[in-house]
Amino acid sequence: MQFVATCLFGLEKLLGEEIDALGCRRIETIDGRVTFEGTHNDAARANINLRCAEHVFIKVGDFEAMSFTELFDGTYSLPWEDYIDFDDAFPVKGHSIRSALYSLPDCQSIIKKAVAKRLGENYGSEMLPETGVKHQIEFFLFKDKVTMMIDTSGVPLHKRGYRPASGAAPLRETLAAALVLTSRPREDVLYWDPFCGSGTIAIEAAMIMKGIAPGLHRSFDGEKISCLPYDSWQKAREEAKSKIKNDCGFEVWASDIDAEVLEYAKANAKRAGVADAIKIFKADARKIEKPDRRGTIICNPPYGERLMTVQQANELYRTMGKTFSHFNPWQIYVLTSCEEFERLYGRRADKKRKLYNGMIPCNLYQYFKPREEKFKNSIDKKYKR
Predict the structure, then answer these.
(1) Which residues make beta-bridge pairs with 130?
(2) How confident is the model at residue 165 (pLDDT cuts 50, 70, 90)?
(3) Is the full-model pTM beyond 0.90?
(4) Taking Cα atoms as reference points, which of 108, 221, 226 lies closest to residue 116?
(5) What one-character DSSP code corresponds to residue 350?
(6) Contact 107, 148 (CB under 8 A)
(7) CA atoms of 267 and 165, how far apart (whole Å)
């Protein structure tokens, strides 16, 4: 059986590695999605365990279509009766990128008619009630190739269930997990988010280190798809529970200048089952001091489009550069959309990674090499304001 896992742009590599870890075989990777092969049981395992995925779809099939006739015929040729029962509802939605067929309403209407005709002929009825379980059909048209899918996730996978309340500009859970995976946390290294907001990065870090699957405590649309084994969902949950590390010594600090948002962070950490691993406290990130131990700072500070004006954000980055310089040789990871971050911060990143926070293009600035004093003067001179 083939599946398609979608993700935010820039997370494809991490998502692919997660799919490999499940024992599934990757088939194709393009921007924002990874196609892979697995068993019927892997629909449940993927939904419950993938930290960077937004949705997991069953791939029904694909074909070329440059006309509405080809779209109808290609859709009609697929075995929809293998997935959709007689009384099931089957709404249609999708996307078209760089294709001759670009009108989404027209594509939706034609696909709907083709699926209805196929199902009607197979079930011997011209009328389909659509009063039963909803199976969301999603099409993806890219360069005139149509991929037809059925959603097994339902509510997007970044909605883990632990964050019903959050701050003014929350970071998506899947992106937070990707930041953590990129920084490679370790049990013997303190992890600190000094701009924690509602605690998403700290919570995702603790969940990863404690082995708590992100979808362990939520439901999925795939649980009602008859072609997927009903008991596979319970088996996948039991498998995930068996991997939880109750004796994990990993420690996370989560601090913020806003006392009100810290209350959200505490409640979220408790719901996620990681309150014991996170120390949450009020602190001004511009004035924090380095503890006498090994550690990593990872944060998503305000930037122009989030919470602050551009001028305020720029001044914050200058102060961060001075404050964080005292944390040498800690590793530091900063996600921001500011293209001038390195100049303002006063140090060139060892590595940059392009990511998207929703629709906002950002860079993850990674500092993992110790800042040697002999290079400090030349670096400061290069970025001198």
Answers:
(1) none
(2) low
(3) yes
(4) 108
(5) S
(6) no
(7) 9
